[in-house]
């Protein structure tokens, strides 16, 4: 059996019951990491997901339903990780939501929720796991930002602000841990065919009276020169690299995997 680079480590991936988060959790589990899932969904489906991951990758898998807008629940989740696994070695801050409206029409409660989940939750998880990571002189924090952490789009002021802020948090925390065995980095995906993006595709197909495939091509043509979606598996592979010894001097980067979006 090939040596697994994360055997004996524990990874917490927020927002990991589907989409990008689940893809990254699977990739980390494939490298031997025990996994703590977090997110919303049907309880029976989440139970089955835990069982399937544990069986497929021969690792321990647990779940915590912390609401990432609530600091007390985030603290309870980190305590749970300590009680269950001894602590968190790899933290992937992936939880996120989106809402689209011009700033003058943007609902205040939507702004507050997006900033809380997409940015502030990463502050809380990071501050809570860093003491142990410093103590053991090893840890990986990976913040899932976005191309919208590097460039903007109209109608997405809260999301863009949160993701720019997440990259700033990444850089600051990377400098604070630069002389340790802890690294902090961000991944900035372009379009990934998550349920959220599929809804955009469906809406575009309906609005323009075109097929779903044509709507996908039109969406990608707007931003992503490769004409292909980034996949959760590709993002998971990048996360595995950032956890490896080969990436121990990769610190404070905002690594875009975006089919050429930001190169334009």
Automatic annotation (TrEMBL):
Look at the named UniProt entry and state the broad enzyme category this protein falls under: oxidoreductase
Q: Recorded GO terms, molecular function?
A: 3-hydroxybutyrate dehydrogenase activity
Give the keywords, sorted. Answer: Oxidoreductase
EC id: 1.1.1.30
Q: Kindly name one Pfam family recorded for this protein.
A: adh_short
Transmembrane segment boundaries: none
**Superkingdom assignment:** Bacteria
Q: Which family is this sequence assigned to?
A: Belongs to the short-chain dehydrogenases/reductases (SDR) family.
Protein name as it appears in the record: 3-hydroxybutyrate dehydrogenase
Q: Which organism is it from?
A: Duganella alba
Upper classification of the organism: Bacteria, Pseudomonadati, Pseudomonadota, Betaproteobacteria, Burkholderiales
């Amino acid at each position: 059996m090939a040596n697994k680079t994360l055997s004996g480590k524990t990874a917490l991936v927020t927002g990991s019951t589907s989409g990008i988060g689940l893809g990254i959790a699977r990739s980390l589990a494939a490298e031997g990491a025990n996994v703590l899932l977090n997110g919303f969904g049907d309880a029976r489906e989440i139970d089955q997901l835990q069982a399937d991951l544990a069986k497929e990758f021969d690792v321990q898998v647990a779940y915590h339903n912390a609401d990432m807008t609530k600091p007390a629940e985030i603290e309870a989740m980190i305590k749970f990780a300590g009680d269950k696994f001894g602590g968190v070695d790899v933290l992937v801050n992936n939880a996120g939501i989106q809402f689209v409206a011009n700033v003058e029409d943007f609902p205040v409660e939507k702004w507050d929720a997006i900033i809380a989940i997409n940015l502030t939750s990463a502050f809380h998880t990071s501050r809570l796991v860093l003491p142990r990571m410093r103590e053991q002189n090893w840890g990986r924090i990976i913040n899932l930002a976005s191309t919208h952490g590097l460039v903007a789009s109209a109608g997405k002021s809260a999301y863009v602000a949160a993701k720019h802020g997440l990259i700033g948090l990444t850089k600051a925390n990377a400098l604070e841990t630069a002389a340790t065995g802890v690294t902090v980095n961000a991944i900035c995906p372009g379009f990934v065919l998550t349920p959220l993006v599929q809804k955009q595709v469906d809406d575009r197909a309906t609005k323009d009276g075109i097929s779903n495939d044509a709507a996908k091509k039109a969406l990608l043509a707007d931003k992503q020169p490769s004409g292909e979606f980034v996949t959760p598996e590709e993002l998971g592979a990048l996360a595995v690299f950032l956890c490896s010894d080969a990436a121990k001097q990769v610190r404070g980067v905002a690594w875009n995997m975006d089919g050429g979006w930001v190169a334009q």
